[in-house]
C-alpha cells in the first residue's frame, strides 16, 4: 500500500528522540504509543544514547522513592537508608512499559520527580481503545508524544549525534515566541508546559544541526513534534482556504526534515504566494505545519468534534481498597485479623528504627534478632477494581420490540464488545408475555451473550413491572457482591401486564411505577431508552419515577444506539 | 506423575504443530490454546517440555542461566559450571500471588544473617522453558500486566521490598482458555505468536483410542514410555533438524508479498501479525525439512498465526478461522 519512500511516523519519532537525548531532563521524556517493531527499534537506539533503566509496573514506594534497607539495617543494628529508583536513575532515563496501565499513585510520584527535574521518562503506551491512556498527569510533563502504531518499519535505526549544543543556540525572539503561542492557541493546546517544550524543541532542532539561531523550519518542526499531537481542536479554516485532506488519507508524508534548513519553509511560502502576496504570517505557517502532523486518529476525532482520548477508563468499576485480593497496594498499620494479611516486610521495616532504643529497655539477655512490638505490625492492602455491571432490561413485547428488537440486540452486543476491553460485565433481562427472566447473568463472555440474544424471541404483552423488578433484583445482587451496577432499560413504557401477570393497562401502569420507584429507592443508576417508532410520554415518565435519564431514539440503528447509551450512561466513573 | 509421551497424543494436530513451531523457533512467540477442558492441552504442553533435550545450565543457578546469561547478568547468574538440566515446565496456578510470580525478599536470610537475598519466583523458574497458564482469561489483571511486560522484554525487573534485581526470564508462554468464560485483552492476545482451537474429538473410535492409551499409561507408565520412546525420538530429531535448518531459510520476496497481502485482506492489525506469519512459516518449513519457504507453508500456518489478531466485529457472526480461509481462497485460489 505505502510506497517504500513514503514518510513513516518513525522518522519524526527519531527526531524527537534525538532532541530528547540532547537534554533529557529539559524535555522530560517521550510517550511512545503503539506496540510495533518500529518502537522496539527506537527504544533500542535510545538505549545507545542514554542509560535506560526499566521500571516495572509493580514497583513499590520504598523502591521508587528510597527507604530503609531492611537487611542492611538488621545487620548493622541501625537504620540504613537505601536510594530509590528515581534517585538511582538520576543520570539516566526511566522507562515504563504498558504505561496505560500505570497506577495513579506511581504516576503522581513520577510527576513530582519530574517537576523537581530529577528524572526523565520514556512511557510505552500500548493502549488499543479510546478510553485507555497513560496518566495525563505524566504525559503532560513529557515533551514528545509519538505514535508509532502505524509504522511499517522494523529495521534498526540510529540516533545521529547532535552537531552543536543547546547552550549555543540563542533564545527565541519575540516574533517566534508569539508565533508559538498563537499556534498553541489555535490548536487548543492550553498547557503552558507544551508551549515551553515547543520553544525548547525549536532551539534543540537548531542545536542538532549545529546552528546558533532558530529558523522558521525549526519552529515548524518543533510545532509538529510537540504541539500537533496535543491538539484538542482543528485550527479555524481560512475563508478561501484550500481543501483540507480528508481524515482518511492522512498517511500523507509530513514535510521533509530540516537538514536542508529553510527549504521547507520556502516551499510553503511558494504555496501561499498565490493566495497572498505579502510576507506570510509565521503563525499561519506553523499552524499549517501542525495540521499536517496531527496523527490520523486524533484528526478523525477532532473532525467529529470529539475530545481526544483521556485516561480514567470510563466503564470500569470504581477502585476499592480490599483486604484480601487484587493488586497489592502499600501496607498500613493494623492487626492481621478478619482476613487481613500481615505485611511481614513492612512490619519489620517499621520495627528497625527502634531497635537500639528497645534493646536498652529490655534485658540484655534477649538475643532475638529483632524486637517487635504490636505497633510495628502492618497489614496488606489490595486494590480491587469493582467490576461494573451494566444490566440491560429489554422489552421484547409485541408493542415495543417487534420491529426494533434487532436494534436493541445489536446495541447490547456492541456494548458487550466494549465490555471486554473495559473489563466491565453485562447482564440481560428480557420481558414479554407474562414473564420476565434473567436471560444472561452478569458475564464478560461475548459468545454466551450472543447466543442468548439470538435465542431471544419477541412478541406478546408488556409486563413492565416484572421486567423492572427482575432488573432491580439482579442489580441488588450485583451491588451486594461489592460491584457497581447500572440499568439500561429499552422499552416504550406502555405496560399492559400487571406485576401478578394479569392483563390490564391501569394496574400494569401502577405496578410499573411502583417498580420504578423501588429502583429509585435502591439508588441504582438507570437509563430508559425508548426505541419505538413513535415515542410517547410513558418512557419519560418511567425514567422520572426511577430518577434516571431518558433517551428517545426512534430511528437509531444499533451503532447509534450504542453511542447514545454510552454518552448518556449515568454515573460514569468520572 | 509420569508424563504422557508427546507422540502418543491422538489428533489435535494443529495444537501439536503450533507447539513444535514454538520449540523450533521460540521467537515466534507463545501459543494460545482456545478450547474446552479435557482436550489434552496441558498434557501436550507438558509432554513437549519433557521431550526437549536437556539444557546446559549454570550449576546451582536458580535461573538455569546459559553462558550468555552469565555474561549479561553476572551478579545474579554467577559463574557456575554448565551442567545438564531438563527444560523447565512451570504451571502457573490461577491464585498465584504477585510475590510468588516475580519473586520476593528471602525473609529468613534477611532476618537470620541480615543478608538481602532474592527468592526467585515462577518467572525465574520458567526461564528457557515453558510457562503454562491454564484458564488465562481468569487470571487477575495485574498479573496479566506483569506477564505481558516480562514476556515482551525477556527480563524480570523487581523493584520492591528494598530489592533491585534484574534477571533473565525468557520463556514460551502457553495459555489456554475458554472464550465462553470471558475475553482476553487484545494486548495479551497479541503477545501470543500462534493460537489454536481445540475441540473434543467427536469420533467415537478416536475417543476409545484415547482412553485405551491413557489406561495403558496409567497401568505401566514405564513400559508405556518405552514403547513410545522411538516415536518421541523421531520428533526430537525433527525439532533438532528444524533448529539447525532455520538460519539457512530466508523467505523470498514473493512469500513476503503473500504474507502482506493476506494480512491486509483479513484486516489483521499491526505489523506484528505479518512478522509472526513469516517467522512461523519459516519454522514450519524448517520443521518439515523443506528447501525453501513457500506459499504452502504460509497457508498452512496462517490460521494459527492470524486468527487472534483479527479486528473483532461483533455483528459479524463469521468466525476468525472462516474469514482467514476465505481470504486465502480468494487470494491464492
TrEMBL record, chain A:
VWFA domain span: 389-568
Gene3D superfamilies: Magnesium chelatase subunit I, C-Terminal domain, P-loop containing nucleotide triphosphate hydrolases, von Willebrand factor, type A domain
Comp. bias (Acidic residues): 237-251, 264-273
Location of region: Disordered: 230-280, 303-336
NCBIfam families according to UniProt: PRK13406.1 (NF009943)
Name the UniProt record assigns to this protein: Putative magnesium chelatase subunit BchD
UniProt organism field: Erythrobacter dokdonensis DSW-74
Automatic annotation (TrEMBL), chain B:
Domain AAA+ ATPase: 27-202
EC number annotated for this UniProt entry: 6.6.1.1
Single GO term (MF): magnesium chelatase activity
Keyword Acetylation belongs to the record: no
Pathway: Porphyrin-containing compound metabolism; bacteriochlorophyll biosynthesis
Protein keywords: ATP-binding, Bacteriochlorophyll biosynthesis, Chlorophyll biosynthesis, Ligase, Nucleotide-binding, Photosynthesis
Enzyme class of the recorded protein, top EC level: ligase
Superkingdom, natural source: Bacteria
UniProt cross-references to CDD domains, sorted A to Z: AAA
One GO BP annotation of this record: bacteriochlorophyll biosynthetic process
Catalytic activity: protoporphyrin IX + Mg(2+) + ATP + H2O = Mg-protoporphyrin IX + ADP + phosphate + 3 H(+)
Chain's role: Involved in bacteriochlorophyll biosynthesis; introduces a magnesium ion into protoporphyrin IX to yield Mg-protoporphyrin IX.
Family indicated by similarity: Belongs to the Mg-chelatase subunits D/I family.
Protein name (Swiss-Prot/TrEMBL): Mg-protoporphyrin IX chelatase
Native organism: Erythrobacter dokdonensis DSW-74
Lineage of producing organism: Bacteria, Pseudomonadati, Pseudomonadota, Alphaproteobacteria, Sphingomonadales
